[in-house]
Amino acid sequence: MKTRLTSFAVGCAVAAVTTPALAANQVVTNSNDLGPGSLRQAMIDVGNGERVSFGPGAGSLISLSSKISISAKTIFIDGPGVGGLSIEAPGNRLFELDNNAIVSVQDLTIANSGNPALSGAIIVEGGASFLATRAAFTGNAAENGGVFRIAGGNLTLVETSFSGNSGRYGGAITVEGNGSESVEINRSEFRGTSTLSCDGSGRGGAVYITTGFYTVTNSLFSGNESSCAGSALAVSGSAIGSVVNSTLAGNYSGNGGALLLDAGGSLTLINSIVAGNATGASVSDVNALAPLGYAGVNLIGDNTGADASFPAGQPNADDQLVGTAAQRLDPLFAAPATASSGSPTSAGNFQLTANSPAINQGVDGNAPGSLDLAGNTRIQSDAVDIGAYESAFATPVPSAAPVPASVEEVPVLPLPAIAGLIAGLGFAARRYLRGRVRA
To answer: ω before 315 within 30° of 0 (cis)?
Structure first.
């Protein structure tokens, strides 16, 4: 299914939040589980729209013995920086938001929380919203949604990282509720996250979305493992959304696909790379059990499981760059690493090298924001690159033939070479005439 899409916007239920002035804030002065100066007490005492910060006495680790519940108020939590402070609740849920609460956290780490018998180390429901900026989530585990379970709530992630989290499904995030959910993921990394079993669930090694609206932009999914399908992202149910200028590579699925689109779900793939993934079955990259929409130009390494949406060709008739099982299309990453069964990994460098076929091949009108995942300015050369990372490299060109010594020595091109040249010129012309926007 081909979709005309020059920009993608999803109505987000998250209310606009104005950062309050630094007044009447609560300061955490120790690392105690409860009592005066503790994080728990600060969360109780902080007023609506006020801020919680951390003094030197809070140390680098705050360990809680039970969850903190937030209802019907807005709280800003400011950490000292990722690596400077970690908050955990081993064996327990850490935060539970409901009744339209809004919690915004930045510059801290949330680790080692959740319980495999419970849903979500952080649960967001009842119209509540959780916003995280410059935050890390590591080593969390829960039954569904290793870090987050969103049910009738909203989630916004900007410049966040997820590693070593796990769940029965949705190793990092599970979204399932009444259809009002909104999830926005921007400039974030999901690495080395996994699902625990394949008992009819086990989907979404990193993210599993069944309801609501979602956008994923400028983000990387690598080294994640799903015991079933959708080792990076699984979409099903009534969920509607898009994956824009993102890279899904080096993930492992037990029975099919780093990207899973199941019946009922909707997904539009835009200027993205899905390649270099592994599987214990036949489908490694895209498992499209429903029509998959696309815009811009995407790079698909192996179209097994998605050939109806992405027929082979480099480019194909729809200007997509698509390989096959017999001839996979290599994005030429800097130093790729791939997960295997039982061994998710956080290794690998998925930035593009100088000869990558993804360089300058995207559609500028579909490019999201001004920065890529690494903070580089988008569109540095002829056009936006495909995937999560932008480079300053020029468009790769075939090696030039040696210059002949005289006119008499000019070689006659064989017919296949002439056909290839004409096809290449046709691709460039089509993109120019369409204003680089897919029809």
So the answer is: yes
Mean pLDDT over 385-403 rounds to: 79
C-alpha to C-alpha distance for 328 and 100, rounded to whole angstroms: 47
Structure tokens at 282: 């036949």
435, 294, 233, 70: CA torsion to nearest 10: 70
- Sequence-separated contacts (24+) of 378-386 with Cβ below 8 Å: 378/245, 383/436, 384/245, 384/271, 384/360, 385/352, 385/356, 385/358, 385/359, 385/360, 385/361, 386/245, 386/271, 386/272, 386/273, 386/296, 386/297, 386/298, 386/299, 386/321, 386/358, 386/361, 386/362
pLDDT in tens, 372-388: 999 999 999 899 999 99
Q: Is it the case that residue 248 has pLDDT exceeding 90?
A: yes
- Per-residue pLDDT tens for 14-73? 334 444 444 369 999 999 999 999 999 999 999 999 999 999 999 999 999 999 999 999
Q: Find the farthest-apart pair of alpha carbons in the chain and give their distance in angstroms, rounded.
A: 91
Angstrom distance (rounded) from CA 306 to CA 312: 10
In 153-292, the DSSP E strands lie at: 154-158, 161-163, 166-169, 173-175, 182-186, 189-191, 194-195, 207-209, 213-217, 220-222, 225-226, 233-235, 240-244, 247-249, 252-253, 259-261, 266-270, 273-274, 278-279, 286-288
- Of 213, 210, 202, 216, nearest to 248 by C-alpha is 216
pTM (2 d.p.): 0.87
Q: Which two tokens stand for residue 384?
A: 């936006």
| Paired residues of 248 in beta bridges | 221, 274
